[in-house]
Amino acid sequence: MTIYRNPVQGPGAGQPPTPLGCQGQACRQHREEFQREWEARFRNQSRDYRCQNQGYGAGQCRRASFLYPRKIRSTGTWHYHQGIDIGGRRGVSEIVNVYGGTVCNVVRNIEENRGFAGYGKCLVIEGDNGFYYLYAHCDSIEDLVQVGHHLDERVVIARVGGTMFLSSDPTYECGPHLHFEVSTSTYPKGRGRERTLDDTGPDYYREDPLLHLESLADWGPKKFYFPVVSGASDETGHEVNASTVADLYNATESSNPSGFFPLGANNLWHGGVHLEGNENTPIRSPFQGTIVAVRLDPSPAQAVQFYGSTNFILIRHDIPQGIYTRMRGQTSTGERRRTESVGRYVGTRRRPPTATNPPEQVAEVKRLLHQCTNTAGQPYYQADGALLSDGNTVDDGLVTAIVNFQTDIQEELSPNERFEPDGIITIGGRTWRRLEAHAREVSERTGDGDTSAQRESLPPNVVFTLFMHLAPLALEDHLVNDIPWLGRVRVETEDDDQLQADEEDDPPAQRNRHLSGNVGPGEANLREDLLWVQQRLIRLTRNETEPYTGPADGQWSSTLENAIRAFQEAHVPYYDTHPVDGIINPSRRATSTNQRLCMTRSQLTRVSEAEGICQEFVEQLQQRDNPDVPANVFTDIDCRVTAGEVIWKVGTARTIAIPTTEFRHLLHWEIFSVEPLITGWDRIDDDTDDDLTIDVPSLINRVESVSSGATTSSNGLEESQPEAGGENALREDGLLTTTEVRAFYSSPDRIALRQTMCRFCSEWGLNLDNAVTAIDDLGFNTTGLRERLAHYMWWPQVNDVGLPESPLVWHYNPIAFLDYYLGLFPRATAPSALPTTDTEDDADACVCEPDPFEEFTENTVPEDVNQQCIPPESG
After folding, report:
1. Torsion over CA of 763, 764, 769 and 773, rounded to 10 degrees?
2. Contact (CB, 8 A) for 842 and 84
3. I need a surface site. Which of 502, 702, 857, 866 has the fewest CB within 10 A?
């Protein structure tokens, strides 16, 4: 484990905090052993528990580690250390922010210590990645740390101390150290749900700080990656930067024969861009996400249909809440813009703020307040149809509705978040987020409301990345070397009852044995060791192709040697790259022959599958309804991938508009969301039908005006007034030919569409009857079109991944989206100067007082002792 982002800067900064190696696994094992012994022998006695792993070295831990268990004598309950403790020099060692984010809470004195008893001087930062970081027991907190301020990573935020702010003794201090926690919930709410050694599901708040710090990697700005970049030989060549952005714009616009965003020839929408590649060009994940649906048919005969490969991967990305809030309040350039707000101020400030009241947001707030109901079951905002949709009028009824809603949500807020209802909703702020959440709850509960409310089964900060036309690849184990996530997918086939039955039939006492020496040809081969190996081989290989058929007599034989060799070849990964030797040594390594013999048959089967591609997964990917069609879509996957990770290889395709062209090696790449994400980008949302044709006359006119030589402005809009009928009337022939589309994407007018969100029906979820009819009405040949398109319609098969039934979604130019998204993450600041090295004569260096729980008796332990912070026993 390499931890670069040590929050305590000082000598050895950038190195793993030590000794902090145990992450709970060994503690959990010893805790279970203690529990079994207690139930058998000490049920009526109060017996303390001490972890047997105390100390230094690999696999050992101390009280400073995550989930270190201890018993609180005053209550008789168990407590588990919810963070990690990192020693430092009192008032000298600097504490730095491990990830850019916004300050949520700051406690500088005991009067401010509501909900943070025992943490002392502390602060909480909501990272731009959605996690909450707690820094506790500080000696002092820097003045720049103020609630609401955004702080970049590696900014000095505090100094190491030992403050605790106990009500029984406010001046009490423990040994100097930082208590550091990572949580998925706000504080102090997050403090109320303590994680235990038994927690393995998603309901606990605390994350393992060591694993989290390791996942953050080195200091520096966030890195995103383009999936395919011509000429890039490694991950670095795919990084999103000014150079690769310019190259990909050129490759997908002026230099591209087809596959533009969002316009296709023949008046068809196109939801993404085409990236050219070669036969084995790898495709990389742009940023961290979860693969939720795939079709990866390995058979070229069925996978590749008329328009190219039908294989695809769909990745879900959850945008961090802090970044999502920025998206809703920034311009496309990434500069801070004036915050949009709705309402009229009715509070008591001396300098009352003025709401900006943009018409679009006013109408949206009215709609949401009309959808949400108060405790009496009545809509907060009651108005007729005209006033309800009027975004230019902020009436008294709207202001009253806002105040009433703000009043009602106070109980949902923590004491530090509560505010005076003032009649103004800041877009992206507390009231706005809760208004959206309430509207979703009402929609899910009643099923009423408009289309946008009904489809809100996903949080609004979710975006999807689609990679289409992927290569059909043979699903063999060696493919994991090129595409690592394939080795992480598991399709469960055995239930827990079978696993339990295996454990009962083959108990640990019977399986586990420490060999006295080597077993094998020319080895000592003690009788007791041979007997155990024979018994294990009889049990484990009885259903295999090469079972051990000899006796369990403790004697060496060629039959036993052959059985050992067969077992090693089938189950021991070491022998994938080394000659099979038939020798078993007493090694305790998890991948040794000895340890594999200690497993049950179920365990052995699972661990063998884990070293390649899960065969059940392979079988699922090859299932098809009939032999002549592509394989079925598989959605039971949920596999995490990291930014820049290779996820597949480029396949072949050709455009729908020009079906006579030859297949080319290309990737169709698109990014879409259910809800609009970016405030400040242009919008096109006039086309709400379920076919693929562009029903936006103003857009068609804009494209045709370029080919006809009409004068346009810098943003691509015509300067002259449209002819009779307004912009909704088509001019010229109203058809976008291939020549016209190419001319448009070779002109400066194309730039305006880069940062335009377009809402239209996904081409992968069309109503084929309506689509073919619409294309036929435009005068194009549609013979056989429905049958050809049917193989690419995967949308109806992915309902269980959270996508709405309706494929009417928001599409983004994926190049522009990545460039914009990366710009929302804060850039790293220069590291501060490191303090001088600690010396032995510094009496205050890393000296930690005894554990308070060890000193207090059952009658004297304070009620507000911080159960989250137990300092190390010694420096």
Report:
1. 10
2. no
3. 857
Beta bridge pairs of residue 463: 317
Q: In 228-253, which positions are buried (b, 16+ CB within 10 angstroms) versus exposed (e)?
A: bbeebeeeeebbbeeebbebbbebbb
Q: Mention every residue, 6+ apart, whose C-beta is less than 8 A from residue 696.
A: 684, 686, 687
For Cα atoms 412, 416, 417, give the angle at the middle one, nearest 5 degrees: 45
- Predicted TM-score (pTM) of the model is 0.59
pLDDT for residue 771: 92
CA-CA distance, 126 to 104, in Å (whole number)?
6
Q: Taking the chain (875 residues) in consecutive chunks of 10 residues, what is each chunk's mean pLDDT?
A: 71 41 54 61 52 45 67 67 85 90 90 82 88 93 91 90 86 89 74 59 67 68 85 83 93 84 88 92 92 95 94 91 68 42 82 81 89 89 83 91 92 70 82 81 60 52 95 87 86 60 73 82 90 92 88 93 92 81 79 84 68 81 91 91 92 73 90 91 88 88 76 36 46 77 91 94 93 89 91 91 89 96 63 33 31 28 31 28
Give the start-end residues of each E strand in 119-212: 121-127, 132-141, 150-151, 156-163, 173-183, 206-207
Which candidate, 321, 379, 371, places its Cα nearest to that of 129?
Answer: 321
Q: Report whether 867 contacts 188 (CB < 8 A).
A: no
Signed CA dihedral, 519, 522, 524, 530: sign only: positive
Please report the pLDDT score of residue 32 as a whole number.
Answer: 62
Rounded Cα–Cα distance for residues 723 and 725 (Å): 6
Q: At what angle do helices 558-571 and 601-609 cross, to 10 degrees?
A: 50
- Extract the tokens encoding 172: 């009490």
The contacts of residue 285 (CB under 8 Å, 6+ apart) are 225, 227, 315, 465, 641, 642, 643, 644, 645, 647
Torsion of CA 594, 598, 603, 609, to 10 degrees: 10
Supply the DSSP string of 510-542, one letter for each residue: HH----SS-BSTTS---HHHHHHHHHHHHHHST
Backbone angles phi, psi at 200, to 5 degrees: -130, -10
Residue 294 forms beta bridges with which residues?
Answer: 313, 634
- Per-residue pLDDT, 563: 94
The DSSP annotation for 411-439 comes to GGS-TTT-----SEEETTSHHHHHHHHHH
Please state the φ and ψ torsions of residue 124, each to the nearest 5 degrees: -125, 130
**Distance (Å, rounded) from C-alpha 130 to C-alpha 849?**
34
- What is the pLDDT at residue 70? 66
Look at phi and psi of residue 709 and say left if phi exceeds 0, alpha if psi is from -120 to 50, else beta: left
